[in-house]
Amino acid sequence: MPKHILEMRKITKTFPGVKALSEVELSVIDGEIHGICGENGAGKSTLMKVLSGVYPYGTYEGDIVFDDEVQKFHSIPDSEHKGIVIIHQELALIPYLSVAENIFLGNERRGKNGMIDWNQTNHDAMRLLEQVGLDENPTTPVNQLGVGKQQLIEIAKALSKDVRLLILDEPTSALNDDDSEHLLGLLRTLKERGITSIMISHKLNEIQEVCDRTTIIRDGHTIETIDVVNEAGIQDRIIRGMVGRDLTNRYPKREHVVGDELFRVEDWTVYHPTQPGRVVVDNASFNVRKGEVVGIAGVMGAGRTELAMSLFGRSYGRDISGRMYMHGEEIHVRDVSEAIKNGLAYATEDRKRYGLNLIDDVRRNISSAALFKLAKRGWVDGNKEIKVAEEYRGSMNIKTPSVMQTVGNLSGGNQQKVVLSKWIYSDAEVMILDEPTRGIDVGAKYEIYTIVNRLVAAGKAVIIISSELPELLGTCDRIYTLAFGVVTGEVPVAEATQEGLMTLMTQEKATKDKEVRA
Amino acid sequence: MTGTANIRELLTRNIRTSGIYIAFVAIVALFFFLTGGTSLSPQNVTNLVLQYSYILILAIGMVMVIIAGHIDLSVGSVVAVTGAISAVLVIKHDVPWWGGVLAALGTGVLIGAWQGFWVAFVGIPAFITTLAGMLLFRGLTLLVLGNISLSPFPAQYQKIASGFQNGLLGGDGYDVFTLVVFGVAVAGYFFSAWRTRSQRIAYEQPVEAFPLFIVKLVVVAAVVMWFAWQLANARGLPNVLIILAILVIAYSLVTQRTVFGRHVYAVGGNLAAAMLSGVKVRWVNFGVMLNMGVLASVAGIVYSSRSNGAQPAAGNMFELDAIAACFIGGAAVTGGVGRVTGAIVGGLIMAVMSNGMQLMGVDQSVQSVVKGLVLLLAVAFDVYNKRRAGAR
């Protein structure tokens, strides 16, 4: 009988009107890496907040048993004191402070008279950085480091607190493949040192790769805990548990009816907005036809988002040069409103920061890019606006009690549907979707793909930017690869393989300056 | 989703806005008792309107600035400088009264454009731009006035803020015209409330239960007509109230119903998302600052007319009263949230409190302490609500 480091027994957590968790059971064996899978809104994060003391003892029912003792955490410091450290999806580092200052924030290394001992701090930080395999100066401000490295600093911070149970919420969602690989490797190393981890993830191949066991949660209930073994059927079993139904095909079928060329970009070059002379997009050329889904594959930092945003009304970069053609005619787009008028749309990869007004309602977010369609001489027709919003709520299957609901209260998948509604309502002909399924669950992903299919069936063109190659292979007709700002290949989907694309995506590595990646 | 929302649901959903009305009623009632009924006498109600009108005018512009995510610290100085320019022209150079009004408005446009330029196109935070403006326009006031006060204005100019519409339709001891104007306003309100309700039903949106709807209308009508009765029994309909009513209605419509108004909310709610939705953020920012300049000049005209002259220290600290009115009225410090009506009620809360304490003979120092605490508590209430809403 293996020793359990943690047992959560019959955890029930209710919010006004909603039962978020209902008698959830979770047991974690000492020294294992334990996965937690579930759709967005299933209750994973709530469960972790109960465990780490964000929701204090007394606001939930059930017992948390850690080290064979029932724990009553009243705050995060309580749980950290026992060695339970949670690393949230949104990193909590302070951008202008140094690596060492961030690691010891709230836990400062003090000298004799209560002043901070900087030599000790930086020395200890160096040790911790070695442990997580990060070769950086502890005095570097963290905003000069990429997301992958920041994630490692979070782990170093956890190690500084003598962590015994490390909880990671979607640790690789913002990382590229190399960084993800490194992070997962680090989890294995920590496991050898006796540190237990809980990993929440949507990426099932990662779960399969590193986890010993995984618990599946759906609608606030524990479905099952399974031993993760390296066999083909395991991912399907997890998906079945998460969605409560079989998803025989993760990508909906589509009739490929590709027409004439709709949108073409030639020799597009973009410079970095603040670092003079640094080329971010280098002479990129590509096109997309009516009824076609084109993918742009590239690792993080390849210039995918920068390419898209610079096309969309010069929202990124400076000294932009190149030509754009719509229906074979050159168009000149100087700002976003001209881009919209020319039939372009760009759904951002970071919908919370760039895509939605989270404090406003569904209705007004849907109309926000095409308010001119609802307005006569500057006056908005509020009733028509409600009607439009209701139409999209129905056709896009946005799950919300009312179109007056604040968008910030919706789940990730439904927020993304609001973003798509907004751009469809703007009558865009060419839709650039940047990581359209990031952070949303399997069921909602399927719906998003269905919407994409509907769009191209209506004669629109869709460009999908993604770092998930199976997604591109499952949805696109053609895939361009982008590496360090250069288009390195164009592959029809029939000839594309993950390995082939990955080779093209990393092709320029040797010839380009390493600086470009950072 | 058809159906009716019950009172509790309505209250909780609109706690941010409804809380302020409840607080307003409570404060009015409190001072009614504390002053032994004097605070609601016809004479005092009239005074209240006259005395705080310029703060309310400033609050209208300020709430739009705050919704867009900015702040304007210069409005007190702008009130002073526009009043001073008008006074110099009308009093010293015998320009007709409307010449002074136009000059003040023109100055307001220029000042608004000046600050809008720095905020929107150069990208200087409004806090800094208007802090500079506060010093700049105060200095210009002193220069224009040559460091001395100017007075008095001719009678027509004084009437802008101190005049009344009375006796147009006669009446024995009370002004019929005032009552008619308010009666028409109440009828208009009934009509628009009814139309909104039936449209919402037509679009299958939730509305309040029918009895509640009627109760709401009757209560509003009773309060408004009582207010009209008080005015009609005093000196009639103040000109300033007409100006104020036009501004409140116009700006409520601008903020709620126009593309520009919606863009102001979008910019304050999420700047980056607004930009990527094709909102011309710079022009929106320029617009709110320009508008603030114009409204500050209107307040300048009203203030100079009421005080019957221009003083070097005019409008001192007005900006803080206007800002406080917005935040008490439910505007969010981070932008994106707020309403013109909320700011007006916020301003009235401040007005009723100051006026009530003056009637009671409370010391100036204590008044200041009380006002400070009310502002703090109002924003604390807002923060608490937000935290509760975001607790999930």
Summarize this structure briefly.
Chain A has helices spanning 44-52, 76-81, 99-103, 118-131, 147-160, 177-192, 204-210, 234-243, 304-311, 336-341, 351-355, 362-367, 382-395, 412-425, 442-457, 469-475, 498-505; strands spanning 4-15, 18-29, 33-37, 61-66, 69-70, 84-87, 165-169, 196-200, 213-218, 221-227, 261-271, 279-289, 293-297, 318-326, 329-331, 344-347, 375-376, 379-380, 430-434, 461-466, 478-483, 486-492. By secondary structure, chain A is of the alpha/beta class. In chain A, helix 4 (118-131) crosses helix 5 (147-160).
What would the principal axes of the Cα set say about the shape of chain B? Answer: globular
Low-confidence stretches of chain A: 509-518
Q: Biggest sheet of chain B, open or closed, and with what strands and sense?
A: 2 strands, parallel
In round numbers, the mean pLDDT of chain A is 87
Helix-strand makeup class of chain B = mainly alpha
Sheet with most strands of chain A: 6 strands, mixed
Task: Enter the CATH topology name of the largest domain in chain A.
Answer: Rossmann fold
CATH superfamily of the largest domain in chain A: P-loop containing nucleotide triphosphate hydrolases
CATH class of chain B: Mainly Alpha
| First-last Cα distance of chain A | 47 Å
Per DSSP, what share of the residues of chain A sits in E-state strands of 2 or more residues? 25-35%
Helix content of chain A: 25-40%
Number of domains of chain A: 3
Number of helices of chain B: 16
User: Could you tell me the number of beta strands of chain B?
Assistant: 4
Radius of gyration of chain A: 24 Å
End-to-end distance of chain B: 24 Å
Question: What structural category do the secondary elements of chain A indicate?
Answer: alpha/beta
Q: Which range best describes the helical content of chain B: under 10%, 10-25%, 25-40%, 40-55%, 55-70% or over 70%? A: over 70%
Strand order of the largest sheet of chain B: 1-3
